[in-house]
Every structure is written in C-alpha cells, then in structure tokens.
User: Which sequence fits this backbone?
C-alpha cells in the first residue's frame, strides 16, 4: 500500500468532484424554475468547490505531512497557485455574476404559476429570458433574447414537455 500525501488527496478530491458533478447537474434541474440554466450554474459551483477543496487540502496538509513537505518544497508553489485560482474564481462568481432575475409567483384556479424574468443587468433591466412554470413544470413559451432585444430562441412547453422549438 502506498503512503498518503497531499498530492494523492488532491487527486482523490478532484476525482470525487468529477464523479459528483454530472449527477448534481442532472438532479439540480429537476422541477426547478430556470431548470434549463441550473445545470450550468451547478457546473460552475462544482468547479469552484473543487478548487476550494484542493486549496484547503494544499494549505492544511503540509502541517500534517511535515516530513513530506521537507522533501517536496515545490508543493508550496502549488498551494499558492490553488489559492490564487480559487480567489479569482470566487471573485468572478460572486462579484461579477452577469445575470439577475425576478420570480413572480401566482395561483390561478388552483394552479401554482411561476414567471421567471432574467436580466442581463440590474440597472437597465434588459431582459435576457422569460420562462413560465405551472405546478413546478415547464409551461408556455420560453423566450431567450439578445442584449439588443432580438429573439435568440423560443420554445413552447406543456406539462414539462417540449411541444415545439420556434
């Protein structure tokens, strides 16, 4: 049996996250408003979590594996790089999120209706997409617009099934 070291822990962590990511991407889109975009958000989140985990491992493990670090000083550079990448991704993800959205919920004739309007920016309220949900299922016409207001795509749903792409 081989000895455990920080590199092996980072590799195991990364493989675990690679296996979990598609599972979570699939399950995160089930029955949620904005379901078509949710898997991409999950992918970005899992990428950030992978980097955060690798960063924590690279920062904490040298204190546990002191003798290993003495013969592998290059690991300090790796820990620094992980820290820089993680900081960059966190900044971009949390402080430069390009889209905002507003969800409106209504109940009509016993049906729960959700309307999600996504915007390119908060200031000008330039609409990026409009989606409709009826009782937790995709419904009606879903529209995606360019920044100049032109229709990029339209899809029509009924009871969570795609009826026709326009």
Assistant:
């Amino acid at each position: 049996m081989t000895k455990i070291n920080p590199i092996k822990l980072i590799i195991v962590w990364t493989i675990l996250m690679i296996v979990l990511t598609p599972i979570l991407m699939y399950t995160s889109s089930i029955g949620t408003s904005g379901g078509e975009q949710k898997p991409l958000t999950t992918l970005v989140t899992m990428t950030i979590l992978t980097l955060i985990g690798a960063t924590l491992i690279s920062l904490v493990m040298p204190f546990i594996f002191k003798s290993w670090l003495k013969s592998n000083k290059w690991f300090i550079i790796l820990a620094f790089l992980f820290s820089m990448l993680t900081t960059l991704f966190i900044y971009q993800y949390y402080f430069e999120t390009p889209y905002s959205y507003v969800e409106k919920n209504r109940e009509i004739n016993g049906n729960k209706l959700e309307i999600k309007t996504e915007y390119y920016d908060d200031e000008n309220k330039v609409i990026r997409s409009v989606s409709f949900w009826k009782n937790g299922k995709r419904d009606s016409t879903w529209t995606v617009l360019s920044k100049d207001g032109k229709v990029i795509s339209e899809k029509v749903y009924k009871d969570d099934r795609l009826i026709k792409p326009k």
Notes: The first helix runs from residue 6 to 28.
